[in-house]
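We now fix the convention by which a protein and its fold are recorded. Here is one such record, which you should read through line by line:

>
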Amino acid sequence: MKTLEELKKELLADGIIDAAEVKELEEVLYEDGVIDKDEADFLFELNNAVSGKANAPEWKDFFVKAITSFVLDDDQSNGEVDDDEAKYLYGQIKGDGQIDDIEKALLENIKTKSRNFPALLAELL
């Protein structure tokens, strides 16, 4: 099995993420059924690298679904965004100095699905 680093090199070789690559990502990242912090970090790195490029529409859907799952489907604060998660998302989204369409879609999705939506995240919308 490839490491995340190997996978990232492969995915970014052509500068975009296509539908077949999204399928591969899904298989690799959901192999154990959950998205962990390393995998979430990895997805944000990928998104920053391909932001604004002609990626497959499936990339946006997968990114939003995976990060939403990482934040909301956890044992500590199931269905809610706790303070640590809010700070994590804020740092990841603001980290590259811009909020792209995919990150906005992520925030909107979390806002819709979560029982709460911290002010820290609301200011990003």
Observations:
- The mean pLDDT is 95.
- The radius of gyration is 14 Å.
- The longest helix spans residues 57-72.
- DSSP finds seven helices and no strands in the chain.
